[in-house]
Amino acid sequence: MALAADPASNEPRDSTRDLAHSATLAGIATLTSRVLGLVRETVLAALFGAGNDMDAYLVAFRIPNLTRDLFAEGAMSSAFVPTFTHELTHRGKPDAWRLANHVMTALLVATTVVAAAGMIFARPLVAAYAGDFAAVPGKMELTVTLARVMLPFLALVSVAAVMMGMLNSLHHYFVPALSPAMFNVASIVCAIALVPLMPGLGLSRVVALAIGVLIGGVGQVLVQWRALRAEGFRYRPMLNLREPGLVRVLLLMGPGTLGLAATQVNLFVNTQLATSQGTGAVSWLNYAFRLMYLPIGLFGVSIATAVLPQASRRAAVGDIAALRDTVTRGLALMLAVNIPAMFGLIVLSESIVRLLFEHGRFGHADTVATAHVLRLYAAGLIGYSMVRILSPVFYAIGRSRVPVLVSVVSIAVNLILNLLLVRVMGVGGLALGTSIAALLNAIVLLALLRRELGRVGAAHLVQTIGRTALAATVMALTAYAVDRSLFRGAGGHLIDGVRLLISIAAGVGVLAIASRLLRIPEFDEAIAMLRERARQLLSR
Predict the structure, then answer these.
(1) What angle do CA 385, 346, 392 make, to 5 degrees?
(2) What b/e string do you get for 473-498 counting C-beta neighbours within 10 Å, with b at 16 or more?
């Protein structure tokens, strides 16, 4: 189905510009955060490698981080943004502020109780994740200690998630997308400054990273507070469980949490199974997932962040045609940038891992293992990104049960595949099983959304996938050829960095030419908006 604009209206094209512009704003901020995230992972790899301390930290952080992923980029946005947007659209800011105060207070109370309970029952909680850690002397005890230190992060990230949803609804994308950078900055600073001090205090060196998690949570709240105050928001503790807006949010969040939990439950399954694969397996999965998540965070999440408020406003006024157009264009824009990212990660995986992580205690064997896992994770990148856009739309139209049921199926498929594949492929089978489950999740959600909204630009999306895949194939072959032929035999991280930079530049150049020849408008628009925003930032 062609998505041409009505001759008498420029709405589709204007909508696309608004969407691309909003996604670019969020994308630039997210890029900053993700780059800092890579710096953070590089520092941690150099200090701790893929040993017992890092395994313990990653499992302990998995517990509060589950809530961060669900709330900051999941259920909170899906449940709160449509409700908050409805209040803004129909009743104005005073009622919207009242809703936000109720939601924020309810989450503070709930997460404080959960964090306290988690600290008390930290040992059985950790044992559920990583029972095999008990076989390594001191590893289980260290993981329990780290979990107790980091659990208060739950309350901080919940407040930050509410603030992010408010700012997105008010058309602020840059600041909330930048807020996770505070977490990465705090982690880097604590890793460098506090790690050497921990032994003198009788603590494990890795405890410094747990302290950084808490400081980073505070930073995420503070960086968004100023923007909200400028809009007129003032926090007032209030909690009435019969408040209609709060009831709507809680009702959506219940199934919403489960509906968007597929990736996180899959990670839980992977973590549990990986602990049986020996020292380093948990760390390899983490490092690979972080690299794969870079384009998801940059493009998938940023585009979804821009789509959700627009979709919520169109759903609030019953404009199904415009809602359908927003979803189609959001998916097309995401596909145009994430398909090349997937191909690039697959062909350059080992070079990327070696450059970023092969320092200090992270050896060549860790590089090979992590790159192998990265290639298999990258195969599901499109699935992860599509779910980020598709799931929230169901909540915007009041059909929250649909992604719940699809998520349950996806979790079941992931569990079965991982149990089978880990026996055949080891830790790589966990990544492959998760990727297949993510792709299934996205395909089923898209099919069901078409039943709700009608034809969601199927022909346009198929054309975008076909043309982008062709352009990405040429790009990948070019990047791989350059990477394999340039400076072979030369060593050192400087040479590795130059070779990787040239390979990426050659690939992107070929991609740009191929995209122009194949007429992929979303790619051109994304690049144009990115250049425009970069010029704006440089001129400030």
Answers:
(1) 5
(2) ebbbebbbebbeeeeeeeeeeeebee
What is residue 3's predicted lDDT score, i.e. its pLDDT?
Answer: 33
Return the domain boundaries, the chain: 15-533
Residue 11 has pLDDT above 60, yes or no: no
pLDDT (mean) for 436-454: 87
Fill in the DSSP letter of residue 6. P
What is the spatial distance between Cα 375 and Cα 380, in angstroms, rounded to a whole number? Answer: 9
Structure tokens at 398: 């009041």
What is the mean pLDDT of the segment spanning 53-76? 73
**CA–CA separation, 272 vs 464, rounded Å?**
38
C-alpha atoms less than 13 angstroms from C-alpha of 529 in its C-beta half-sphere: 22
Residue 351 CA to residue 189 CA, distance in Å, equals 27
- pTM to 2 decimal places: 0.69
The model's pLDDT over 97-129, given as tens digits with 9 standing for 90+, comes to: 998 899 889 888 988 998 899 899 989 888 877
Cβ atoms of 334 and 305 within 8 Å: the answer is no
Helix (H) or strand (E) holding 129: helix 122-130
Band of pLDDT at residue 283, cut at 50, 70 and 90: confident
The DSSP secondary-structure symbol of 300 reads I
Task: For residue 118, give both structure tokens.
Answer: 């988690």
Tokens, residue 263: 């990736």
CA distance 392 to 260: 9
